[in-house]
Amino acid sequence: MARDKILKFLRTTRANLDNQKSLGNLIQGEPYLITDENRFAIGIANNNYEDFAKKSELDSKKNDYVSANSRILGRKSTGSGAIEELTLNEILDFIGSAQEGDILYRASTGWQRLPKGTDGQVLTLANGLPVWSNTGGYKSLKYLTSDFTTSSTSPVEITNLTHQLPANKLFYFSVWLFPDNSNQSTIYFSFNINSILFAVARRKIASAEVAEISYNYLNYIISHINSSPNYLVLEGYVFTNANTNAIVKTYCTDSSSPAIIRMGSVVYIAEI
């Protein structure tokens, strides 16, 4: 690096410097003194230069101010551009499409937005992170809005009455089924044998005496309906050791007439 040369600044006006720039007469690394502005500049190509701020201009920036309200400096407008004042609400809106009722929480990779739940749900933790959960756990009522009819002689699932139950929970169930009492049919209310620890139930068919039935490690609770009773009631408890479905099935015992389960039949299950 040679130090035996005199560094010379070319004196020029801004207008002349811009003219030499347009003609491509500048030299990279050549210094200029813009006399009408008392400002230094340096060539960065034969058709371009860069000028430097003066101390007075830098000092004035120290006195720049924002509004009296609490604000954060950044940019909310699309694309690059000048710095803007942002409110805290505008900063938080950068995290997803925020809606009324949403919650912001810190995850392992950064801040995340938890969409609002539904009325009656409670906020709880799953694997250390906040989630919405139904009050008291699973609770659902399934019912028939129209008659269910089948002519099958093998069990057919009534899917509108099916419940999907999570593992390792104790549930109460109440089943009210109304078969057509003019036809013979068989009704099953069942759980998967590999998914329950036990199931106990109290059964009543029409005006018959109440009977206690209990099954451990069995896959279903069965009740038979013939032509005389006009309803079946089951109440009981089941403990699941894996995810399982609670299913109602029916079939006709006489192929000449279909099995009919009337609308209004319900299955209610709630975690306890």
Write a concise keyword list for the protein shown above.
YefM-like fold, Jelly Rolls, five-stranded antiparallel beta sheet, rod-shaped, 3 domains, mainly beta, 272 residues, six-stranded antiparallel beta sheet
Give a structural overview.
This protein is 8% helix and 45% strand. With 272 residues, it is mostly beta strands. The protein folds into three domains: 10-60, YefM-like fold, CATH 3.40.1620; 72-134, no CATH class; 139-271, Jelly Rolls (Sandwich), CATH 2.60.120. A hairpin with a 2-residue loop joins strand 3 (39-45) and strand 4 (48-51).
* Structural classification: mainly beta
Overall 3D shape = rod-shaped
- Give the second-level CATH assignment, the architecture of the largest domain: Sandwich
Note the run of SSEs as H and E.
EHEEEHEEHEEEEEEEEEEEEEEEEE
State the separation between the terminal residues, measured CA to CA.
Answer: 84 Å
SSE blueprint:
Layout: E1 10-12, H1 14-23, E2 31-34, E3 39-45, E4 48-51, H2 55-61, E5 72-74, E6 84-86, H3 88-92, E7 103-107, E8 110-114, E9 121-126, E10 129-134, E11 139-143, E12 148-150, E13 156-157, E14 163-165, E15 169-177, E16 185-190, E17 196-205, E18 211-216, E19 220-225, E20 232-240, E21 244-252, E22 259-261, E23 266-271
Parallel strand pairs: 1-2
Antiparallel strand pairs: 2-3, 3-4, 5-6, 7-8, 9-10, 11-23, 12-22, 13-21, 14-21, 15-20, 15-23, 16-19, 16-21, 17-18, 17-20
